[in-house]
Amino acid sequence: MNTRTTKRISVLALLLSFALLTVSAATPGGSEVMWEVYNRDSGDTMSANLIMTITNARGSVRERTIAQYRMDKDGVESKLMFFLSPSDVRNTSFLSFSYEDGRSDDQYIYLPALRRVKRIASDSKNDSFMGSDFTYDDMGSRHPELDTHTVLRKETVNGVSTLVVESIAKGDEDYPRTLSWVVDGEWFGLKKEFYLPDGTLGKTLTIDEYEAIDGIYVITDMTMRNLEENTSTRIQMEEVEFNQDFNDSFFSERQMKIGPRR
Amino acid sequence: MRFFTSFAKRPFLLLLAVLVLSSIFVISIANNAVLETDLDEYMPKTHPAFMASDEAESLFGIKDAILIVIEHPEGIYNPGTIEKIDAITVALQEEFDAVESVTSLTTADNIKSDDGFLEVEPFYSGKTSDSAISQMQAEVEANPMIYGRNVSKDGTATLIIAELKSDIEAETLQTWAGQWEGPENLMVAGRPVVEGALAQLGPKDMAIMFPLVIITMIILLYILLRSVRDTVLNMVIVLFGTLVSFGLMTLLNIPIYAVDTMIPVMLIAIGVAYGIHMHNTIHHLMLSYPDLSKGELATQSLKQMVRPIIMTAITTAIGFVALMSSQVLPVRYFGLFAAIGVLSEMLLALLLFPASLYLLGKPKYKRAKADLEIQQGKGTLSDKLQALLLRRPKMVVFISLAVLIIGIWGTSMVWIDTSFLANFEEDSTIAQTDQFVNNKFGGTSTLNIILSGDETDLFKHPEVLQAMDSMQDDIEKDPIVGNTLSLATFIKQMNQVMLEHEEGSYSIPDSQELVSQYLLLYEFSGDPESLEKVVDYEYTSANITVQLKSDSSAVLKDILAVVDSYRPVFAEHEIEVTYAGSGYKAFIFSELLLEGQIISLALSFVIIIILLALLFRNLHIGIVGTVPIAITAIVNFGVMGLLGIPLSSATALITSIAIGIGVDYAIHFLEHYTNERLEGSSLEQATRSTLRHTGRAIIFNAIAVMGGFAILMFSVFPPNRQVGALIVLNMATSALGTLTILVVLVHYLEKKHVFLPKRIR
């Protein structure tokens, strides 16, 4: 009886170590994958139009179009956004600066009907992005050091080979565990699942379309579904352009008042 | 008749039947009885006002909330209290599944703007240093969205608001809150607590009252009847009636609602009437014909009493059955099963008394003084009454008319009001907590005003928002209104913050673009969930929450009148105004209940007139017979008007029941009187004999019923006290009316040959 149990355990241990070996032999570690994702080339500058469709639990829909400009320079990510529609909020603009050194973001808002620029204090990356189901974290890229990453398995999604990475947050998070399906070799996510502290699935992100523009993979259609609230947000990207010239004064309060580039 | 006599001859069979039935009912009650305390079960869910309210409730997430008050006499702005508020907020959410969301000082967000810097931050930073707390205090006091709403203006108390997705036991929560006591005081308030306490208090009180009523009844019966045997028989009858009522209810798997807990007391008080009349008749027969055998005595007493007892039971049952016209299910069941109880008591009284003669022989009644007087040929009290009535008929009519006029005058002052809170003693914890919350905060009751249009973004129009704002201002002029909250309130607050408290900035801006941009900003930086509670996703409908310091329906009506005056303004924008929320539903429910009870009151009058006319084959008797109960109803409403007792669903219920019981006296009188006249007695003789014979029984009957209900006047539960007092009043009026004005009316109508048909004379 005793010996049989021991045997079983040793066989199991063997199988397990084989499994681990095969994964680690063929693929990079979880942390490596997420660093690749974080460092993926996304262009120093970019401009695009975002179409955001927010659906609430009752199935009602709000659609917004936003012109977005981004520049990465000297450890600072500058973003300028203008609402194009609906018409009553047209030209309402947001300006933000994120710092690589960990300083908290600087954010400004301009309400054209008020003709005033206001600085917004925000220290939480978990805040909803523009009232959608995306957080600022979801829209940018989360620093890999914030979580512990493990590659669980390989999986083929729509004919594309991906690595399934489990990320466990080191700090306190709304979704302490996430699973990401990262395209092997290209290092962008195809799918992401967000799990609540009690282990149930809270949010899912699906990527429906992506294309390579100027050699950079861009997700042009994605949907975040909040399973708790039964809401969803779809973001489509149009007129994506990279490596444009922004002069230094473009990401400024002045430009916020002027409006988007034509 | 034959059924009763043949059954009475087999007393053992009767006993066996009663025993078997009783045990079936007892077993069924023991196994199936479920007390339904959820007030939602009372609501007529398909009523249009309810459906509209339910729809709005789900659209805006309007939910019943429990308020936990935390009071610190020296002020809540100290580390201990703030940390406790935070701990309770977290624990509520974690420990109760029924809690949907919790709002408190430590969860609320503050929007502020200084020097071009817009900040959205929780009031509570998690820090409890002196400087952090005094900063928090300053921020709370600068924000009208929380100051005076969630935190009292004197800074000694704050509210934790727990919205519920399902019901929660008020008692459980109260005990739970107790563990956080000291040095702070904790109190639990809110509609769910009041309803929960109400649903439990009533039945609990009845459980105490029931044995008291039984004991009182036994003592009263013994004093009145001077017979242990007849007292026991009476108690068997009334307890059997109660068993049948509840036994059938449980056999049919119908839950026991709070209102049903009145049934036992009612059945006891009503049921003794049948036994008293049987006893009275047997007694009289034995006095008049001492040589009757027990069989003859049984047959004779039955012969005299079958008709009046069945008639009185039917009229009483009609008073109850008329309640089945109600739209409220529990009230319908109450009427049905109380009626069944009454009818089974009647059956058993008619069976048991004759059977007792067969089984135990003729009773040996102790002789009452009145009996001796009759035998000695002296005038009894009833004869004196008769002499007085017939000598001074105009005085009787005059007094009756005077009573009627005062009654009608009093009735004109009756005001309609229903309030859950009025059911609690002023010094009860619930009433005092309510008082506290009303003094320190916006109020414990809420009304939701729902504005709905068709056009998308309708509620971004400045004119619409300004109309809402001005209506809110008007509503807030009523001292009973604590505060109001709507999209307009949010926009005003936002405008003030964005304009950095410029003069006049707490107002609705004139530009729709600016409103839209504020809303966009709020959506991004505030919590969009609080917007969802005041406006729908497309901005086509809005919800205005009115916080009230009273749950009285009369107060609510005043507010509704102010809102109605704004209907034309909103109609210009094609906006429809409706209401929602549990407070409003309770209001509609009470109105329905009241309307139903007034209908059943009228209905029982009509049915009783028709029934009397049919039974006596004479419409005059039908009309004259209802005179005492008509006076009873008017006196009842008159007294309520003069004493300022509001007409509520409970008091209206009593009136229609009292009518059904009160008419019994008239029936006994009329039955005996017509029989006397049919047998050829003269006018005077018939009146004298009827008063002698039935007068005593009527007074005994009235004393017994009044004695039973009078016990309720000592209840700790105010509604039960009202029920007791009003029934005592009504029984007294009915008995008195029957023995005075009815006697006079019958006598003089008969004298003028307009009362009984010619064939009798």
At a glance:
The complex is a heterodimer of chains A (about 260) and B (about 750). Chain A is an alpha+beta fold and about 260 residues long.
Question: Which descriptors apply to this entry?
Answer:
heterodimer, A: 262 residues, alpha+beta, outer membrane lipoprotein receptor (LolB), chain A, 13-stranded antiparallel β-sheet, 13 strands, disordered N terminus, B: 761 residues, Multidrug efflux transporter AcrB transmembrane fold, 3 domains, 4-stranded antiparallel β-sheet, 27 helices, 12 strands, elongated
Number of strands of chain B: 12
Q: How far apart, in Å, are the first and last alpha carbons of chain B?
A: 27 Å
Give the rounded overall mean pLDDT of chain A. Answer: 84
Task: List segments of chain B where confidence is low: pLDDT < 50 over at least 5 consecutive residues.
Answer: none
Mean pLDDT reading of chain B: 85
The share of residues in helices of chain B is 55-70%
What is the third-level CATH name, the topology of the domain at 43-133 and 238-262 in chain A?
outer membrane lipoprotein receptor (LolB), chain A
SSE string of chain A, helices as H and strands as E:
HHEEEEEEHEEEEEEEH
Name of the top-level CATH class of the largest domain in chain B: Mainly Alpha
Low-pLDDT residue spans of chain A: 1-6, 19-25
The spatial strand order of the largest sheet of chain B comes to: 3-6-2-7
Per DSSP, the total helix count of chain A is 4
Which fold does the CATH topology of the largest domain in chain B refer to?
Multidrug efflux transporter AcrB transmembrane fold
Shape of chain A: globular
Strand content of chain A: over 45%
Structural class label of chain A: alpha+beta
Query: How are strands sequenced across the largest beta sheet of chain A?
Result: 6-5-4-3-2-1-13-12-11-10-9-8-7
By DSSP, the count of extended strands of chain A is 13
Radius of gyration of chain A from CA coordinates: 21 Å
Number of helices of chain B: 27
